[in-house]
Amino acid sequence: MSQRPYVIDQMISAKTIAARVEELARTITEHFAGTDKLVVVGLLRGSFVFIADLVREIDLPVEVDFLEASSYGNSTESSREVRILKDLRGEIEGRDVLVVEDIVDTGFTLNHVVHLLQSRAPRRLEVCALLDKPSRREVDVRATWTGFEIPDEFVVGYGIDYAQHNRNLPYIGKVRFVEAAETVAAREDGAP
Ligand code: PRP
Ligand code: MN
Ligand code: MG
């Protein structure tokens, strides 16, 4: 599959992310204080890095589960059709649940997942999203806690992909499409 050439400009450093993750975890720990067990649900694949860092800062008894939802495939445009590719392994009825998402863009993914999980009657259900792009919202849905509000840029890294690439970048970067010659030059400069 051929793709338009692009370079990645850093937007949020690994250090800035780590500091914010610590703050979010503190807020979550206070919110759910006294819970018998918090079920932390990561939405695959994008949230795998964020959930790994976040759960290690949450000072509560925690169970980790995953749900795989996909709407973008290899495109930069939402298909607006959310597919559940893998369901939770555990029951959440009567439980305290925290959904962990990497980014809320149009809102279709989070909206779909929140409705699905609410229908299973959890005791409490909250959402923590690392990134929020409010300017792109098409469905009225909001995370309880958000790491960073960002402008309308296509971002990658820290779990987030562009056509399944760049999830392993330790920072959040924005994709900038370029002419082919510029990509080559950027690579020679050591850029990703
Ligand atoms: C991305 C991202 C969010 C969702 C946000 O997932 O990880 O889950 O899109 O977009 P939305 O608010 O417009 O629905 P994607 O469908 O690319 O799957 P992935 O997590 O496996 O990359
Ligand atoms: Mn996702
Ligand atoms: Mg994706």
Task: Describe it.
- The structure is a single chain.
- It contains four helices and nine strands; from the N terminus they run E-H-E-H-E-E-E-H-E-E-E-E-H.
- The protein is an alpha/beta fold and 192 residues long.
- The protein has a single domain, classed as 3-Layer(aba) Sandwich (Rossmann fold).
- The strands form two sheets. A six-stranded mixed β-sheet has the order 4-3-2-5-6-7, with helices on both faces. A three-stranded antiparallel β-sheet has the order 1-9-8.
- Helix 2 links the parallel strand 2 and strand 3.
- The longest helix has 18 residues.
- The relative contact order is 0.21.
- The model has no long low-confidence stretch (mean pLDDT 93).
- It binds 1-O-pyrophosphono-5-O-phosphono-alpha-D-ribofuranose, manganese (II) ion and magnesium ion.
- Manganese (II) ion binds next to loops.
- Belongs to the purine/pyrimidine phosphoribosyltransferase family.
- It is found in: Cytoplasm.
- Its EC number is 2.4.2.8.
- Its cofactor is Mg(2+).
